[in-house]
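Lab notes, practical 5.
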Amino acid sequence: MTMTDVSAATRARWLAVFSVSVGTFTIVTSEMLPVGLLTSIAATLGVSDGTAGLMMSAPGLVAAVSAPVLAITTRRLDRRVTLLGLMALLAVANLVGAFAPSYPVMLAARVLTGVSIGGFWAFAAGLGLRLVPEGAVGRATSIILAGVSVASVLGVPVGTFISSFAGWRTAFISMGVLALALIPLLATTLPSLPGESRARASEPLPHESPARASEGWIARLSGPLKVALVLTVLIVSGHFAAYTYVRPFLEQVSHAGPTLVSAALLLYGAAGVAGNFAAGAWAARNPKPVLIALAVLMALSMAALPLIGLPLIVLVVWGLGYGGVGVTLQLWIMRSGGGEMGTALFVGAFNVSIALGSFAGGRVVDGVSLSAVMWVGAALAVVSAAVTGISGREQNSRFIKGSRLIGVPSRK
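Output from the prediction step:
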C-alpha cells in the first residue's frame, strides 16, 4: 500500500468519526427537543406543563433499558448495520412526533426515540477503538462524545430558535430530516464493524440469557465505575428536574417574553459548549475535582434563579457547569473500565436520570411551584458534589492508569 493509499484510508476513518459525532449530536438533540418547546406543545395537545414533561421521561426510561439490552442482544451483529437501523428509527420517531394529532401519539413517538437513543449512543461511544490507530483513540473518542455533550447544551436552544419563527412541529420535522440525511452519510463513511466474537472471554456463553449475562457484567463493575454511575444519577436527575421546566419558569416567574427566552437559552447553549471543551481538557487526568466544581456552579445558578432577576447571567453560569458534566462523566467511565457494557450502563444511567429528573420535576411543578423545582435541582447538585468529594482516594491511580489506555499522557 502506497503512502497515498494510507493517507486516503486515514482520512476515510476520520470522516467516519465525524459522521458518528454528528449522529450522536442528532439523537441527543432529538431527546432534548421538548424542553424548549414544552409550553407550545402542551398548549397545542391540551395537557399541563407537568404532564408534557413526560415527553422527556418516556424516552429517558426507554433508552435506559434499550442501551444494555441492545448491547447484549445485538452483540454479534455488524455495528454499521445496527447504527443505520437506529438512525432510521430516529427519523421515523421525529416525523411521527411532528405530525402527532394527540398527546398519546406524541408519547408513542418519544418511546421510539428512546430506543434509538439508547442503542446509538451506547455503540457509538466505543467506536474510536475500531476506527483509528491506537495512538489516536483518545482524540477520536472525544470527538464522538462531543456530539453528546454539545447536543446536551445546544439541543434546546436550537429547537427553541426554530420554533420561534416556524412552530414546534417544524422543529421536529427538521430533526427528522437531519436523521434521514445522516443515513446515507453513515452508510458511506462507516466501514464494516463486525459484532463481538463468541471466543471472547468477556462474552456470555451462547446459552446464557440476556438477563443472566447482564448480571455477570454488573458483578464485574469496578468501584470507580459504580461511583460514576451513582453520580450520573444524582447530578443528571437534579439538572433535568429543574431544566425541563426552565422555559415555563422564565415565562411565568421571570416574566420574560419570547425574545428574551430564546436569547437566554442560546446564551446557555453557548456557555455550555465552552464548558464542555474546558472541562474535557481539565478532566483529562482526574475528573473528580472537575465534577465537584461543575456541581457547585450548577447548584449556585439553580438556587439563584428564584432569588434574583438576572436570568441571562444565571443561565450562562448554569450552562458552563452542566456543559462540562457529560464529557467529565464520560472520561470517568472510560478510565474506570467496563468496555461496551460499561458504556451501555452509563448511557442507561444517564437516560434514566433524565426520565427521573423530568418526572419528579413535573410533580413538583404541578404540586408546589416552578420556583420550588429549582431548589430541588440545586439540592441534588450539592449532594453530587459531596458524594464526589468523599469518593475513594484510590481512584486517582486508576484514572492515571486508564488514561494511558486511551492515549492521554500522564505526568510523572
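Observations recorded by the TA: DSSP finds 18 helices and no strands in the chain. The radius of gyration is 20 Å.
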